[in-house]
Amino acid sequence: DAGAEAVGWKIGFNAKGLQEHFGLDGPVVGYLTDSTLCPAGAAVSLRGWQRPALEVEVAIRVGANGDVAALAPALELVDLLVPVNTLELILANNIFHKGVVFGPETADADVRDLAVTVTGGSERLEAAGHLTEAPEETVAVVRTFLAAHGATLEPGDRIIAGSLVAPLPIEPGDEVEVEVGILGRLSARFS
Questions:
Q1: φ/ψ of residue 7, rounded to 5
Q2: pLDDT digits over 50-94, tens only?
Q3: Which of 3, 23, 127, 145 fits 29 for a cystine, CB–CB 3.0-4.6 Å?
Q4: Contact by Cβ (8 Å): 184, 36
């Protein structure tokens, strides 16, 4: 209604433990619009956020035939302000979504196992990241979910496929650089 343009979709609750906690039989899908698109390296204001955090993700670009055209590193910016036991509020707030940063796209990358390194301020996190499913399966899950809810997956849509590591708290003044294995590096600054 406010004139935002669709960018794509986001997977939420793709961890089995979260699905069981909320009594879900699978993941849910949220939306991405250009109103929450943040340029890589640009300062993102956290003004008004209560519990800002960053999730390291893999972004999927949907191809002309509904296949996987490209992959990229991505950062989802979330505000974990809603109590995690209130499913209706979480869904109404687009599953904590406040912003997304996309890195450069790569075609034909093997992302079964990704070494994730996050450097920010005085802290450094290194972890092995694993997608819940192959990118092709994520595309199929999103397509099926959308069809069941009267929407369609379009060529060019982007999908962020769920966090590779636990959400990382962020605060104004933080500068974060993330390396997502073969997909490369991505940075963000927060004010």
A1: -110, -35
A2: 999 999 999 999 999 999 999 999 999 999 886 666 888 888 888
A3: 145
A4: no
Task: Work out the average pLDDT over 170-190.
Answer: 92
Q: How far is CA 62 from CA 19, 29, 97, 128, 186, in A?
A: 25, 15, 21, 25, 21
Which of 97, 91, 54 lies closest to 73, judged by CA?
A: 54
The answer to whether 25 and 92 have CB atoms below 8 angstroms apart is no
Report residue 17 as tokens.
């433990």
Residue of 127 and 24 predicted with greater confidence: 24
DSSP alpha helix (H) spans, the chain = 16-22, 87-92, 135-148
pTM of the entire structure?
A: 0.91
Which pLDDT tens digit goes with each residue over 102-147? 999 999 888 877 888 888 855 667 776 777 788 999 999 999 999 9
